[in-house]
Design goal:
heterodimer; A: about 250 residues; alpha/beta; 6-stranded mixed sheet; B: about 450 residues; 5-stranded parallel sheet; 16 strands
Chain lengths: ~250, ~450
Amino acid sequence: MRIAILSDIHANLEALRACLEAAAPLGVDRWVCLGDVVGYGADPEACVEAVARLAGDGAVVLKGNHDAAVEAGGGGMTDAAAAAIAWTAGVLSPAAREFLAGRPAAAREGEILYVHDSADHPGRWTYILGPDEAADCLAATDAFLTVAGHTHVPAHFSTVSGLAGTTGKVTSFRPLAGKPLPLARIRRHVAVMGSVGQPRDGDPRAAFGLLDLEAGEITWHRVPYDIDAAAEKIRRAGLPARLAARLHEGR
Amino acid sequence: MAGPLAAGTVIDGFTLEQRIALGGMGAIWRVRHPRHAGPLAMKIPIVGGGLDVATVVAYETEEMILRRLAGPHVPRFVAAGDLRNQPYILMELVEGDVLAEVARRAPLPPEEVALIGARVAAALDDLHRQRVVHHDLKPANVILAARGAVLLDFGIARHADLPDLVAEETDEPVGSAATIAPEQILGERGNPASDLFALGCILYLLATGEPPFGEPVSDVGQRRRLYRAPKPPRALAPRTPRWLQEVILRCLEVNPADRHPSAAQLLFDLNNPEQVPLTARAERTAREESLAARLAGWIAGRRAPKPSARPAPGGAAVVLVAVDLSRGADDLAEEIRAEVARILARAPDARLACLAVLKLRLVGETDRRDRSGRTDYVARLVALKDWARPLDLPETAVSFHVIESIDVAGAILDYAVLNRVDHLVMGARGASAIRRHLGSVSAAVVAEAPCTVTVVRRKRGG
């Protein structure tokens, strides 16, 4: 069973298409989308449509804070993010808004928990940026593997579980693109996927994850995409210029 | 599973036949399985009370890394046990001499020390190229097999692509007392130079019969190597040649930056004793007393490294340039030199080996060949050094080799393989009818070279 994970698409259709095309030949049995389909980017309607098609084929699709803000408003967000949400709410079709509004904050499938932010109070929009937040996430669930997004920065955390004398230390690791990471059974893991549509780890390529249950491995893939086109659309839509420029920087 | 392990015990279908080694992280048993032809080796914790976390993490680490390693210098990974119930690593049973047994005969003749050192250095080069630092190299973890040195025990190794579970689980330095590198004692992991230090300890032991720092039990005893230099090998074993002392003491430098830049460059020295540039290390007759003073800056300048700091294995390159100076330093030779300069500018730690092949004639010239061959040899060496002079390389970064062969391409290829060359640079003369029929040296080299090849050709006007 191979599960492809898309997170934080942020209305970047060029990046989403590149990820879908790159993932398909890897033998994907299931798709999971961890939320934030919209916000920042200029193609919210097309991205929601694409994700809704995946959901129609059985994909898990969660709600992120930007998806929630389409209905609730961009209060508490940065000016650029709030401006993008106001614009997005204006261009989304009622069907797309309904689809986003109906998404859950988390989904548990057996020993795997999918969540946009953290197992620690999903919907509070906590960022898992380091071992401390990862420890809170691990403490809030008994899942063997928690797959999260929200930070736009790929990361892996784990702690030894069920062994006498365990220190409870949480390991933290910055995964390398395309290098499978083993998910040892003596540990519990938190895998924070990067962002499809707005990477912030300094690598501007689109990110998606591939979880291979038989091999017990997870891989962070990176895919080049037409950044110029996505950025140009953002500028033409009249969205804050910074949202276009940061795509080139991956920041 | 309950009870002590004994011959006849069956684990996951594997029957334990004979215990062949005992180490800190468990025992190695020869095992058999009805579905596997021939015996295999199973590394398994010595059963006592509950398994401690450090042991389980070591098995987790070894499984993770051994699965990803390939080639002749590691045992082939077969399977691993469930870490929650019965950790074990099942691997190929490697036939050969354990270096720890060989080391009982130490001091060994210098030629044998160099030969063993070269085999282990070749294994380390292969390991480092696969982005792994061993961190526990010692005689008990090396098997001298027919196919080369085989390294065992990756329980505290570090793979650059994977989380460093060992460092994450403990704040204590991890390694073996006799061979642990100074930076490893200070908590740094993932530096390939740490394995070169350990190999230096092994060479010292083989050459003198004594470990350079003893086998200190206490932390304080282990830290002593940070400020107290070992006695030079020649003080203990006077027949150790200067060049070998130079190589060993360079491996044992406290600051990793002062060691060989890569296992391949150490291998190069061990393969080419006459090319080892001798420094004050070679002449030392007593312990270096000023070590602490020399290193004060290095130690003070160190910050506690982050456990997940990304190591950069692989290391510095060996660049081989083959120049045909049979017609003197012509335009092509100059072109080649310019290209070499560009390559070296991109690889500051690289070492350059300059090679000229004297082509031997096959028939009827035995006498003349012997007489004039010698002078040819010296003349070519002089020409080669003169050719390289404008590159202005320090003595430690360049070496010169003139070899005689009937088969020029074969000689260049053999040299590149033996010395683990990373990048080969050579020239190609313009096309001619004869060349098209017989094939050129450069074409033969390009076809079979084990590394990147740059072929330099004079641009033709037209």
